């Protein structure tokens, strides 16, 4: 498994994945405040093809569990944009969050997506 890509507050990160592959990201929280995470799919308009969908998983202190369950404490599946909000009670001052992305539609081309994390200071 490839090492998670480090994410930073208020910095949008762009990445790609393909069907059945999972890509991991890491965010190290240093303050106890709410966390806003936005996942967006970059849909290429291709005639006669289904929309790409990606499932995003959120975990504290561990990667998404093993296939096929990909355990997590929160997740969303989208072909557009989804947002996960973690309130201040869920975010301690020293918590490592892992975000994992897995293309869930079987279209052969890769899926481009972005992750934006915002944490109040």
Descriptive overview:
By secondary structure, the protein is mainly beta. 0% of the residues lie in helices and 49% in strands. The chain has no helices and 9 strands. The strands form 2 sheets. Strands 1-3-8-5-6 form a 5-stranded mixed β-sheet, with no helix packed on it. The termini are far apart.
Brief write-up:
With 121 residues, this protein is an all-beta fold.
Report the sheet-strand fraction.
over 45%
Strand order of the largest sheet: 1-3-8-5-6
Give the N-terminus to C-terminus distance in angstroms. Answer: 33 Å
Q: How many whole angstroms does the radius of gyration measure?
A: 14 Å
Number of helices: 0
Largest sheet geometry:
5 strands, mixed
List the helices and strands and how they pair.
Elements: E1 5-6, E2 13-17, E3 22-29, E4 35-42, E5 54-60, E6 74-78, E7 81-86, E8 95-103, E9 111-119
Write a concise keyword list for the protein shown above.
0% helix; 121 residues; globular; five-stranded mixed sheet; mainly beta
């Amino acid at each position: 498994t490839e090492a998670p890509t480090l994410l930073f507050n208020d910095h949008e990160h762009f990445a790609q994945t393909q069907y059945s592959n999972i890509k991991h990201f890491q965010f190290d929280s240093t303050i106890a405040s709410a966390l806003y995470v936005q996942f967006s799919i970059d849909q290429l308009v291709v005639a006669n093809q289904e929309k790409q969908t990606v499932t995003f998983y959120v975990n504290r202190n561990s990667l998404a569990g093993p296939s096929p369950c990909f355990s997590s404490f929160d997740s969303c599946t989208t072909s557009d944009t989804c947002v996960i909000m973690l309130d201040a009670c869920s975010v301690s001052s020293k918590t490592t969050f892992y975000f994992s992305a897995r293309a869930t539609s079987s279209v052969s081309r890769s899926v481009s997506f972005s992750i934006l994390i915002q944490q109040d200071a």
